[in-house]
Fold each of these.
Amino acid sequence: MRAIWKGSVSFGLVSVPVKLYSATESHDVSFRQVHAKDGGRIRYQRICSLDGEEVAYADIAKGYETEDGEMVILTDDDLAELPVTSSREIAVEKFVPSDQIDPLLFEKSYYLEPEKTGAKPYALLRQALQDADRMAVVTVALRQRTTVAVLRVRETEAGDVIVLQTMMWPDEIRVPDFSVEVGEVKDAEVKMANMLVETLSGDFDASEFSDDYADAVEALVKAKIEGGEVERTPTSTKTSGEVVDLLAALQRSVDAAKKGRGEDTSEEAEEPADEGAAKKTTKRTAAKKSTKKAPAKKAATKKTAAKKTAAKKSTSKKTASRKTAAKKAS
């Protein structure tokens, strides 16, 4: 994992230098919007709703829309005047009972890892939170905005770690606009409901659950690839629906990069995949060379034969001329 933030946890006169890591990652299935006819990616342009013209990114500003539908444009100078903080401190405000925090308030989770110099105070804070069965309510500045969060201890395969969970502001929690009206509930019905709860009671194990939808999509896509149901687009990197090895994929990536720079990509890889492949390559190369040289030899043979024939003809002509001259003299 890569640390996304560095700072320190401060409570009282104690300071614990820490690094922040994202504790979660999304594995949600995502799709591209494509043209059903040929599989081409759908692209969007930044079009102004008033004049219908495309707007360059440099000409885009931030706007705040009022309840009346009017737009207030905020410039970079306006935004620079807003209160921001660059503090690298996670300040503990108070320690509260764990059951007082509504899980609905929790937003994003992060792991806290101590720096080498902060290992001992980190362990002390972790132990104190466990013994007191409390959470630490803190304020922290992430992405230049101060937010409220809590520190709690979580058991993991790597050991107990302190987790920072950012919280939503109270006005961000919606109040339901409906009420549930019920009639008379009989004691027998309540007793039966309690029996059902008791029957289905157990300990929570997250590994018992899986994303059936993601698994089904993966199986569907794999079946289509194996069946050759793949649309070839200009950005495709595979030449067929078959699974390719990493070396081949890297080689094609190198060739594509060279082609983009206008370099020659006709050279073969310096290191073949195995010795057999190297021998085959050598044989093929030798065969190509001998094939190329053969026409040259034939051409040379033809030229030599032509020269010899011409020489014989000229010699014959000279001999015949001498004989004719001799006859005339006699």
Amino acid sequence: MTNSESTTSHRVLDQRWDGRSTFTVEEAGCEILGLSKCSAYAAANSGELPAIRVGRRWIVPRHALERMLSG
């Protein structure tokens, strides 16, 4: 198995998200998980979506989202 094969066989997120270490709640909730905007923010607020509040923004760390999707 080559290095590229081992990387792609364990891929959790689509290749278009490569290079990103954080996502907005709309990206993580709506685009990746398929939730509505309202449901995505409700999930972030309740802790169901692993998000961190920074001022008025919600940030979803990639490692936390991948861990949630893998487990």
